Predict the structure.
Amino acid sequence: MSSEEKIKTIPYGRQTITDADIEAVVSVLKSDFLTQGPSIAEFETKFAAYVGAKYAVALANGTAALHLCAMALDVNKTSRVITTPITFAASANCVRYCGGEVHFADIDPATFLLDINKVRELLQKHPKGYFSGIIPVDFSGNAVNLEAFRKLADDYGCWLIEDACHAPGGYFTDSNNIEQKCGNGVFADLAIFSFHPVKHIATGEGGMITTNDKALYDKLILLRTHGITKESSKFQNQPDEVAQGGWYYEMQELGYNYRLTDFQAALGISQLTRADKNLERRRTLALQYDIAFKGGFILPPLSTPGNAYHLYVIQVSRRLELYNYLRGNNIFAQVHYVPCHLMPYYKQFGFKKGDFPNAENYYDKCLSIPMYHSLSDEDQSFVIKTILEFHKPIITSYT
Ligand SMILES: *Cc1c(COP(=O)(O)O)cnc(C)c1O
């Protein structure tokens, strides 16, 4: 290996920016609109088509998307919402932004996803109406069976938000053998995506909500811009209070400024054109890892055809040592995630170690190794070689 290759670092995830991406951004910068221009609507239309949903709302980031979902579903201080402890904190935090109570249910140790049986047990412990909603996460890119969650949610009068940040392009196969794409709005009331640079599509910061529900869509549009509307058909003030001038607007809800800029939307549109190709590349990389780790000391993730592989999470017994060994070789693996219920912020609500054993066991062993569409075969081979090399001493010491 040349010295040049040795100083190169291989992260667990990263964005790619092409010349076409740069041109798309520059053309917006040279146009009349930096924000609230035509690129936003185009990005929304194209993204909705990509995931197969009717409506899409572009937002400043995925966290803002979660916040507005919780607001649109009327989460308030009487609300109790169930989510997984193995997710980015934002999945749970959106409930807290609205004053609601977060409840966790354990993960399925095979899929690392929120375990529907654990959610059912939790729901059964209380009268119907006790919980208001469920937020399953397509963790690592593995799509949640939302058909099953929808049925359970309906039985208990709950809404469903799909946190699909890890899974644009991913799908699960429903009971009619139909591939249901993540965020298509068929089962979940609302779905959210993030365009943070480590995600599949990068806009710097950025997010999207998708839905098939027109009423929720209208609410989200209002909340995204301060709760302000300029549409005369929607005015609530009395006719004598409504000015006929073009300046007139009404603030009807306490909304936010959660808008995405037009140049970010242009970047998103450009990135979206490569989404399918990039997804295919992620799946090829996953398959190559699966083959390399088969039957060894490393437990690869469960492979499902619809997995969008935001992350490739292996489970290993000497995780810290491997993590450091990889770093020594300029491979920057990561841990996703420190369980939410063990965060000091959530511990204050009474959560503690031992509450969710599957999540905690998973956390003790998990390691996200490099997975991004621009990862070359050569770099992946180096990652595989380094991981196998690390495990060699154990094998020999046991013989
Ligand atoms: C990235 C991410 C978010 C938050 O998205 P931001 O755009 O960073 O605010 C929420 N949930 C999950 C599962 C994520 O991975």
User: Anything to note?
Assistant: The CA atoms of residues 106 and 356 lie 5 Å apart. The first strand starts at residue 10 and ends at 11.
